[in-house]
Amino acid sequence: MNEISVVVPVYNESSVIKASLLNISAYFGKKIGKYEIIVVDDGSSDNTVEIANSLNLNSIKVISYSRNRGKGYAVKEGVLAAKYNYVLFMDADLATPPEEIEKMAPYIDDFDIVIASRMLPTSKIKQHQPVLRRLLGVIGKKIISLTLTRGIKDTQCGFKLFKTDIAKKLFSMQKTERWGFDFEILFIAQKLKYKIKEVPVVWYAMEDSKLRFLDYISTLYDLIRLRLRRYKF
């Protein structure tokens, strides 16, 4: 893999965006021949966009719109703008560090999608979430696995690698704009018989995560709607 588009959805990330983008750029600049970083600003009310633009790096492209639409919408915008043959989306807080792609890249020739997982035996959680969030997360992953994406233990880790042509096809079918978009994309991919590989990674729970309790409720609603939705596969 000698080229990649890296999609980074952001929402009010002024406290971390500079360090994160410099980290991502330094890593891929050293490891990958051709790369671009597509920062998609999901209606931030702080100066996230100004900071990203101030870095003045040719590798960074910023997409911005005024209304907050949700992480799923932001990732979709970034994926559809990708120009290289492989596309990775990752979180701005680097909960999964960019170097974890080294565990995933060896599989991308034989699989269509390679996803990071926190739920495999050799996954390493370096910093845990609070107990309630951890419990809700485990229950949610189990429900998703049993009802939608059988065989996938962790649909929600924000670090996923795709062949770009396949990613664009999947995301063009995506309807979920917020947190449930991950399992929608993987659900569609399974229906279309794409090959998915789940890989253990290192993951850090960040204290200022944007995920709130009500988001668990809305994500459950997304799951129910997805089960009822009719797709033309």
Description:
This protein has one domain: Alpha-Beta Complex (Spore Coat Polysaccharide Biosynthesis Protein SpsA, Chain A). It has eight helices and nine strands. It has helices spanning 17-31, 48-54, 71-81, 101-104, 131-147, 164-173, 181-191, 213-228; strands at residues 3-10, 34-42, 60-65, 86-90, 113-117, 124-127, 159-163, 196-200, 202-204. Strands 3-2-1-4-7-5-8 form a seven-stranded mixed β-sheet, sandwiched between helices. Strands 6-9 form a two-stranded parallel ribbon. The longest helix is centred in the middle third of the chain and has 17 residues, at 131-147. The chain is globular, with a radius of gyration of 17 Å. It starts with a strand and ends in a 5-residue tail after the last helix. The mean pLDDT is 89.
Brief characterization of the structure:
By secondary structure, this protein is α/β, with parallel strands linked by helices.
